[in-house]
Amino acid sequence: MHLSWPGGPLHGTAQLPASKSEANRALILQALAGGGTVGNLSDAHDTQLMRRLLAAAPGTDVLDAEDAGTVMRFLTAYLAVTNWHGRLVGTARMQQRPIGVLVEALRQAGAGIKYLNNEGYPPLELAGFTASKETEAPTELAVRGDISSQYISALLMVGPRLPGGLRLRLTGHVGSRPYINMTVALMQLFGADCSAEDATLTVRPGHYQPTDYTVESDWSAASYWYSLVALAPAGSEITLSGLRRESLQGDQAIVEMMTHFGVETTFRPDGIHLKQQPPAPQAEVLTLDFTDCPDLAQTVAVVAAALNRPVDMTGLESLRIKETDRIAALQAELAKFGGDLREVSAGCFRAESVGFAVNNQSVATYHDHRMAMAFAPLALRGPLNIESPTVVKKSYPQFWNELAKSGFVINEAD
Ligand SMILES: O=C(O)C1=C[C@@H](OP(=O)(O)O)[C@@H](O)[C@H](O)C1
Ligand SMILES: C=C(OP(=O)(O)O)C(=O)O
């Protein structure tokens, strides 16, 4: 797909999808509560897939989580405790994304789960649930927090169903913590008795209450509009609706991060307004930590390289096991423009550039929606091709329509 910008400042209003993280939790909690409504569900593929698989589960013995991490991990726990028997499968990439920590924890809680191919990876065979006889004591589990927080969210959500409840002790350097906090907050909203104290998470046994919940717009999706405003000609501004100052989403961290790239955020009653500011003087190399917000890393790496404002990026450990190896993908694609993402010390990657130029390069997207959306804003600096553009459907199916509405010239045939 060929993308170009006709010139002049960017302005207008853009529609965002609803958060797939909030939606996929709310759908699991709704299923466990046996009622309630989830409002503002987006058409994001991961959200629709979760909805469909939850509805299909009772009558089928093969469920395909495709490439959706939350669907694979949350359903593993949900199907285990609801005594489902069958196979839970996924794409070739999903079969390379580890799930051993979650499976081991669920086995200790009483689930029968087998690996169908490789030990520690999907696909899985689920063979029911036998709760421990000791109904008084909570199931106590030590779980690594340094691979994926989705295992912890998955376990927490089924915690009320376990006889005696659940006590999780997180070990290692916990990543993506705001996603765990989001899970706890939504569980409480759905009537669960649970608490989080640093590395100890406690869930008391009980029932969820049918609850009506309206999903907030997606802050990770908003991050691409921040890039657009940062890279657009002077005077650019955009309004995004459905985002709240009080958010459950850790990716709201983009508000602060983008101040370093000249984007100012104003909160309004129904969303936010982004405005480009003249760049403020800054330290030679900025350091930003993505431990809590890994999905923002691609957005920021591309903007930092394009503006040649070097950033030392830390907390990127989980990027190698997402939709693709995002570090390798960023390195390969940034290099096409004169950008660079180099490990300058253990775990610290510097995003920078020499003579960054956009002139009809073709960006490979590696089956990763965020590669497509993080690189698309470069079209403001020159014409650009994005390969396999439909990949955005995972979280933001309307992304290209929204770019077209804001003035980009898009030729899908190219
Ligand atoms: O719980 C969630 O909704 C998510 C948690 C994060 O994954 P990790 O916990 O694997 O970092 C994030 O990258 C993913 O897009 C969504
Ligand atoms: C990592 C992501 O998703 P998931 O892990 O749910 O596949 C993402 O959306 O960036």
From TrEMBL:
Main location: cytoplasm
UniProt-listed Enzyme Commission number(s): 2.5.1.19
Name the UniProt record assigns to this protein: 3-phosphoshikimate 1-carboxyvinyltransferase
Binding positions (3-phosphoshikimate): K20, S21, R25, S148, S149, Q150, S176, D295, K322
Residue ranges constituting the Enolpyruvate transferase domain according to the UniProt record: 58-403
Enzymatic reactions: 3-phosphoshikimate + phosphoenolpyruvate = 5-O-(1-carboxyvinyl)-3-phosphoshikimate + phosphate
Cited SUPFAM superfamilies: EPT/RTPC-like (SSF55205)
Subunit structure: Monomer.
Family the UniProt entry places it in: Belongs to the EPSP synthase family.
HAMAP family assigned to the protein according to its UniProt record, in alphabetical order: EPSP_synth
Top-level enzyme category: transferase
Organism, as annotated: Hymenobacter antarcticus
UniProt subcellular location: Cytoplasm
Described purpose of this protein according to its UniProt entry: Catalyzes the transfer of the enolpyruvyl moiety of phosphoenolpyruvate (PEP) to the 5-hydroxyl of shikimate-3-phosphate (S3P) to produce enolpyruvyl shikimate-3-phosphate and inorganic phosphate.
Keywords, alphabetical: Amino-acid biosynthesis, Aromatic amino acid biosynthesis, Cytoplasm, Transferase
Residues given in the record as phosphoenolpyruvate binding sites: K20, G69, R97, Q150, R326, R370, K394
Pathway: Metabolic intermediate biosynthesis; chorismate biosynthesis; chorismate from D-erythrose 4-phosphate and phosphoenolpyruvate: step 6/7
Active site: D295 (proton acceptor)
Name of one Pfam family that matches: EPSP_synthase
